[in-house]
């Protein structure tokens, strides 16, 4: 049986396979609901029409993009590494950190790739449960205690946390950094929608790595551009795990275009933050919505009395993320903040279903 060749410890492991197909309203993956401006789209068209941008291998180090990112954050190029989404950076980092059996600490619930990549890279996941009754806020002393006892190869913290939306401020991050020795990976995929970022701490703590992405606030999920910021030592380490030619030429180019016009996105970001506030307060008035968790991201976690809600919404053409069977998120769905029309439709349909 050819199956015998596949690692035995992966039996029961499910690949990450988000929903396929097209839905009139797609609120399941925390993407940006807006369209890019024509100026940007025309530049991309022109770029693709130059055949050498396709026939030649990409710049392995994404040097132009990396320099622009460094300049944006007032860091050096040696403090930046780009990847095929932050997903790839998580995986490459774990590749170089983990020797078989090493532990990796992360919160639960949180972004599923921390566990996925840990297991694939022969690590042992240690999940620290965030308390639902306390709006999933982090108990950082627990993280520090576990880190000091278990001696993990890294701790992941996600702020705003996906799928719960809560954040860790600078003082909290610094508290962890002062009390643990191992690498601390702070995933800031949604930080543009929050009041806080800890990028400034990169210059101060050698063991901090901050992950950022163009997939959310900057509407580039389809081109897969993510990056890590950290000390030269940590960034050099991550690079060891990177495959050659990872980020394609078009993605690198579009990433640089986005940085060149980054202020244009402020109005979309502001709109999404305002819609998040409106949606949260309107959802709270719906029958059988038991809780809308406070969120500083572009999504809301909602607890209702119905385990079949995500399925019923899907039948009505609205795709959301279903967490209803997760033991720490029973009957919860996560909805991305969409356009005004999409959000209105969501409220209208929820009023009929709940
Ligand atoms: N981190 C978090 C917390 C996320 O939610 C996501 C996307 N779902 C990612 C990282 C990965 O983003 P990307 O690979 O698109 O950069």
TrEMBL record:
InterPro entries: Aminotrans_II_pyridoxalP_BS (IPR001917), Aminotransferase_I/II_large (IPR004839), HisP_aminotrans (IPR005861), PyrdxlP-dep_Trfase (IPR015424), PyrdxlP-dep_Trfase_major (IPR015421), PyrdxlP-dep_Trfase_small (IPR015422)
Pfam families hit by this protein: Aminotran_1_2
Signal sequence range: none
This protein's pathway: Amino-acid biosynthesis; L-histidine biosynthesis; L-histidine from 5-phospho-alpha-D-ribose 1-diphosphate: step 7/9
Enzyme class name: transferase
Key words, A-Z: Amino-acid biosynthesis, Aminotransferase, Histidine biosynthesis, Pyridoxal phosphate, Transferase
Catalytic activity: L-histidinol phosphate + 2-oxoglutarate = 3-(imidazol-4-yl)-2-oxopropyl phosphate + L-glutamate
GO MF terms held by the record: histidinol-phosphate transaminase activity; pyridoxal phosphate binding
Sites of N6-(pyridoxal phosphate)lysine modification: 216
EC number(s) on file: 2.6.1.9
Keyword Transferase: yes
Cofactors: pyridoxal 5'-phosphate
Domain Aminotransferase class I/classII large, residue spans: 25-350
Gene Ontology terms: biological process: L-histidine biosynthetic process
Subunit structure: Homodimer.
NCBIfam families linked: hisC (TIGR01141)
Family affiliation: Belongs to the class-II pyridoxal-phosphate-dependent aminotransferase family. Histidinol-phosphate aminotransferase subfamily.
Protein name (database record): Histidinol-phosphate aminotransferase
Native organism: Natranaerovirga pectinivora
């Amino acid at each position: 049986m050819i199956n015998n060749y596949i690692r035995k410890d992966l039996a029961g492991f499910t690949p990450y396979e988000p929903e396929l197909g097209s839905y009139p309203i797609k609120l399941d993956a925390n993407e940006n609901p807006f369209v890019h401006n024509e100026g940007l789209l025309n530049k991309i068209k022109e770029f693709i029409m130059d055949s050498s941008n396709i026939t030649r291998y990409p710049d392995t180090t994404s040097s132009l993009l990396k320099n622009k990112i460094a300049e944006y954050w007032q860091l050096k190029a040696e403090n930046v590494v780009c990847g095929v989404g932050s997903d790839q950076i998580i995986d490459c980092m774990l590749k170089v950190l983990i020797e078989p059996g090493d532990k990796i600490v992360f919160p639960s619930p949180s972004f599923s790739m921390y566990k996925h990549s840990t297991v694939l890279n022969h690590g042992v996941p240690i999940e620290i449960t965030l308390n639902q009754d306390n709006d999933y806020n982090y108990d950082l002393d627990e993280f520090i205690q576990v880190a000091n006892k278990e001696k993990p190869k890294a701790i992941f913290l996600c702020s705003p946390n996906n799928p719960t939306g809560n954040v860790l401020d600078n003082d909290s991050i610094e508290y962890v950094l002062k009390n643990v020795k191992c690498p601390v990976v702070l995933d800031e995929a949604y930080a543009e929608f929050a009041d806080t970022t800890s990028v400034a701490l990169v210059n101060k703590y050698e063991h901090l790595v901050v992950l950022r992405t163009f997939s959310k606030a900057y509407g580039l999920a389809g081109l897969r551009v993510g990056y890590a910021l950290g000390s030269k030592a940590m960034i050099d380490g991550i690079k060891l795990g990177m495959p050659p030619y990872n980020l394609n030429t078009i993605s690198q180019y579009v990433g640089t275009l986005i940085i060149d016009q980054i202020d244009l996105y402020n109005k979309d970001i502001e709109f999404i933050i305002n819609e998040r506030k409106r949606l949260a307060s309107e959802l709270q008035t719906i029958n059988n919505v038991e809780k809308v968790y406070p969120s500083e991201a572009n999504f809301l976690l909602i607890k209702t009395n119905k385990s079949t809600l995500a399925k019923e919404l899907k039948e009505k053409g609205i795709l959301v993320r279903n967490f209803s069977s997760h033991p720490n998120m029973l009957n919860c769905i996560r909805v991305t903040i969409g356009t005004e029309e999409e959000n209105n439709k969501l409220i209208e349909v929820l009023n009929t279903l709940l």
